[in-house]
Amino acid sequence: MAVEFRMPHDVVYYEADVTGKLSLPMIYNLAILSSTQQAIDLEIGPEYTHAKGLGWIVLQQLVTINRRPKDGETITLTTKAKQFNPFFAKREYRLIDSDGNDLVIMNGLFSMIDMNKRKLARIPKDMAEAYQPEHVRKIPRDPEVTPFDETRDTDYVQEYEVRYLDIDSNHHVNNSKYAEWMSDVLPVEFLTSHEPTAMNIKYEHEVLPGNKIKSEVQLVDNVTKHRIWFGDVLSAEATIEWTAANN
C-alpha cells in the first residue's frame, strides 16, 4: 500500500489572492511542497535526485476544488504516490480542513527528465520502491483538455517574459507559473466574481529561462480554455471550470 504523507500548514496572507483565499498558483505550490517533503523524509529528495542528474516533471494535473481555504486557516496537506511504471508515476494530493473535509483533490501524472539531455529518463527502482506504490504495466490516461474552438477568436491574450524567479531547481518554469499566467490573463472582474471548481492542465513542452510566452483564453459560459505558447510551440493547455462566487 502506498505510503501517505501528511503535514499541517497555516495559510498565510501572501499565499492568498485579493479575495483572501488561497490562490490558484499556490494550490499547486502547496501540493508540490508536500510531495517534496515526503521525498526528503524518505531520503530521495531533490538533492538525491539531482545528484543522479535527474529531475521530476509534471505532465498533467487534474484538480477538483470544493473550497479554497482562507488566509489564517489551518489545513492539512496529504499526498501519496499511487502508481508507478518504469517511466511514469501517478500521485494524489489533498488539502483538508480542520474537520477532515476535502478542500482540494489533485491527481498528477509525472515522469523523470535527464537534466542534461532534457529527455525523459527511467525512474530509478530505489526511488519507486521507497513510495510503496502499486506497480503497473500501463498507467491509465487522464481525460484530454477541451480543445480551443478554432472557428472563433480568443477572448483575452497577454504576453509574458520568463523571469529568473519563474525557474525552479529543475531548470525550467515551475508548474505553478502556468496557473498564474492562465488566471492573470482573465479580467479582475471575472476573477473576483467567480470561483474555480475544477482544472485540467496538460504540459506539452518546457519553458526555459529567457523565453517569451503568450497566454490566450476563450471564455464560454463558466468554462475557460487556455493555451500557453512559446513562439509557435504549444507549451501547455488547460480547461478551468468556474462558478459564481459566494463572497
DSSP E strands, number: 12
Kindly name the structural category: alpha+beta
Q: Measured on Cα atoms, how large is the radius of gyration?
A: 18 Å
Shape: globular
Note poorly predicted spans: none
How many helices does DSSP assign?
Answer: 5
Helix content: 10-25%
Instruction: List SSEs in N-to-C order.
Output: EHHEEEEEHEEHHEEEE
Main sheet: strands, sense, barrel? 12 strands, mixed
Residues in β-strands, percent: 35-45%
The CA-CA distance between the termini, in Å, is 40 Å
Report the average pLDDT across residues.
93
Provide keyphrases for this structure:
alpha+beta; twelve-stranded mixed beta sheet; 5 helices; 19% helix; Acyl-ACP thioesterase; transit peptide; lipid biosynthesis; fatty acid biosynthesis
